[in-house]
Amino acid sequence: MKKLHTLPLAAALLLASPALLASNFPLMPAVHAAAQQDTIKESTLPAKAAGDKDEERSLEAPVPWLLVEDHRIEVYDAGGKRMVYSSRPIVRVKGSAHASLACGLDAWNSQEAQDAKRGFNFAYDFKKEDRENGVPREAAYFDYSVITKWGRVDEHMVSFCSFGMSYAGGVHPMHGKGGASFDTRTGKEVPLTAVVTSREALLQALAAAFHAQYPGREEELFAFDIREQLERIHPAEKGLDTFSWYMGTRGELVFLYPPYALAPYASGDFTLTIEREDAPGLFTKAYPLK
To answer: What is the distance between the alpha carbons of residues 92 and 107, in angstroms, rounded to a whole number?
Structure first.
């Protein structure tokens, strides 16, 4: 069921408790919005079904024991025009099973809420500045993230891919993908060190995946060489902490590189998939497929 909350911001600031403001409303933009007689609308939307073309809603979970929603905040001016909006996914466990996973997802939801608040503040502050300076930008400014693909979801792991996009003026929006994987039994996020045997084996497999999946495009890279480029963005002193990944439905590893990570913006983003049979020495014995 959709939950909709609409309230003039000046009234919201007067009536809401400090705790409510801290958890639900980005305080600084709310103050600015109240001064400009803007209105905030807050809603929780259900996830979309597969095949739905709405790019700003998350994809529903592939299992009945996970609930996915999107929490959205929108700001409208006095004339009813949408100025700014922000959205983030919420993933919860349904029922009493998987109590540890429920705690882990709650912590992830909390972090997503904080990130969304910062993104909202960023977009609203730039919109406010442009409005005050008379910059003629008709488009709304935004910062949103959604779950776009579910990977492995079973009694051992819950893994998914998120897509985020933001626009606060300029030539084009910025976008990127990120992965998250949780141990279903413990609720803890799965570190990459638990899944791959070594950084060296991983870089070798990623380079091979790039050549197989993006033939002829090595010259687009900043370093003109995929192995050198990977070494640049994944320095040895960082170990395996700089990789964004999730595990797919076949147990494959999917690594995500947004624009500017490997190549200029015009080259787009890159997704490198490593199948288990292509790199048998890479995968540890943890999280085996049934």
So the answer is: 11
| Among 40, 128, 45, residue whose Cα is nearest residue 88 | 45
Q: Report the chain's C-alpha Rg in angstroms.
A: 21
Residue in 196, 175, 165, 31 with CA at minimum distance from that of residue 87: 165
The confidence score (pLDDT) of residue 135 equals 84
Give the SS3 label for residue 143: strand
Sorted by sequence, the CB contacts under 8 Å of residue 265 that are 6+ apart come out as: 172, 259
How many residues are listed for the chain in this entry? 290
| pLDDT tens per residue across span 20-35 | 333 444 444 555 555 5
User: For 66, what's the count of Cα atoms within 13 Å in the CB-facing half-sphere?
Assistant: 26
Return the closest-CA partner of residue 89 out of 73, 103, 72, 114: 72
For residues 53 and 146, is the Cβ–Cβ distance under 8 A? no
Where residue 11 falls among pLDDT bands split at 50, 70, 90? very low
**Tens digits of residue pLDDT in 210-238:** 999 999 999 999 999 999 999 999 999 99
